[in-house]
Amino acid sequence: MSRLRIFNDTQPQAPLSVHTDHADIAHELAKVGVRFEQWEASQPIAPGASQDEVIAAYRADIDRLMAEEGYQAVDVISLKPDHPDRATLRQKFLSEHTHSEDEVRFFVAGAGQFTLHLEGKVYDILCEQGDLIGVPDGTRHWFDMSESPYFVAIRLFTNKDGWVAQFTGEDIAERFPRMTPHATA
Ligand SMILES: CSCCC(=O)/C(O)=C/O
Ligand SMILES: [Fe+2]
Ligand code: NI
């Protein structure tokens, strides 16, 4: 089940509100310019599937997004709990950073947790299969896949070079809840 928790950015102990209805989540996130939509994860894909398999299965959706929104590059992160580099991969996204382009991710399987830091609040979003999230460029955020990652996400980039991040050097991510391993992992 997808979930949004909103915190004051100085009070990680207790959320101000918790939302599990997709329309509520989309509504709360739209207020701060974040896109959150449900797409049909039409092709059954298991975490651990190769990038080529995932892109082939979702070619039509990817082509449509690329044509409509001008994305220049696409890749796939596909991880299951026995991945030998899971700890390093988890660490890569775990500190607060920004991108100079929108962060657009479509979860075709499993789950992952995005946490956004904006306007004095922290928005912790558990994304699940079928969720598409679009985080505006320049938004401070981090991402957790838990110690036992289980997800497949398609990433779309306007930058031809793919994933480039600017780390803020802030330690806020250490104070907010990490993702707990997902029930389906
Ligand atoms: C779910 S995609 C992997 C994370 C990523 O690309 C990113 O930039 C996280 O902030
Ligand atoms: Fe990011
Ligand atoms: Ni769930």
TrEMBL record:
Full protein name: Acireductone dioxygenase
Substrates-to-products reaction catalysed: 1,2-dihydroxy-5-(methylsulfanyl)pent-1-en-3-one + O2 = 4-methylsulfanyl-2-oxobutanoate + formate + 2 H(+); 1,2-dihydroxy-5-(methylsulfanyl)pent-1-en-3-one + O2 = 3-(methylsulfanyl)propanoate + CO + formate + 2 H(+)
One Pfam family hit: ARD
Quaternary structure annotation from Swiss-Prot or TrEMBL: Monomer.
Gene Ontology MF: a single term: dioxygenase activity
Free-text remark on how the cofactor is bound: Binds 1 nickel ion per monomer. Binds 1 Fe(2+) cation per monomer.
Family: Belongs to the acireductone dioxygenase (ARD) family.
EC numbers: 1.13.11.54, 1.13.11.53
Site note May play a role in transmitting local conformational changes, residues: D102
Positions bound to Ni(2+): H97, H99, E103, H141
UniProtKB keywords: Amino-acid biosynthesis, Dioxygenase, Iron, Metal-binding, Methionine biosynthesis, Nickel, Oxidoreductase
Alphabetized InterPro entries for the sequence: ARD, ARD_bac, RmlC-like_jellyroll, RmlC_Cupin_sf
Residues the UniProt record annotates as site (May play a role in metal incorporation in vivo): E96
Sites where the protein binds Fe(2+): H97, H99, E103, H141
CDD domains listed in its UniProt record: cupin_ARD
Site, as annotated: Important to generate the dianion: R105
Pathway(s) it belongs to: Amino-acid biosynthesis; L-methionine biosynthesis via salvage pathway; L-methionine from S-methyl-5-thio-alpha-D-ribose 1-phosphate: step 5/6
SUPFAM superfamilies: RmlC-like cupins
Gene3D superfamilies on file: Jelly Rolls
Upper taxonomic lineage: Bacteria, Pseudomonadati, Pseudomonadota, Gammaproteobacteria, Lysobacterales
Function: Catalyzes 2 different reactions between oxygene and the acireductone 1,2-dihydroxy-3-keto-5-methylthiopentene (DHK-MTPene) depending upon the metal bound in the active site. Fe-containing acireductone dioxygenase (Fe-ARD) produces formate and 2-keto-4-methylthiobutyrate (KMTB), the alpha-ketoacid precursor of methionine in the methionine recycle pathway. Ni-containing acireductone dioxygenase (Ni-ARD) produces methylthiopropionate, carbon monoxide and formate, and does not lie on the methionine recycle pathway.
Cofactors required: Ni(2+); Fe(2+)
The keyword Aminoacyl-tRNA synthetase is assigned to this record: no
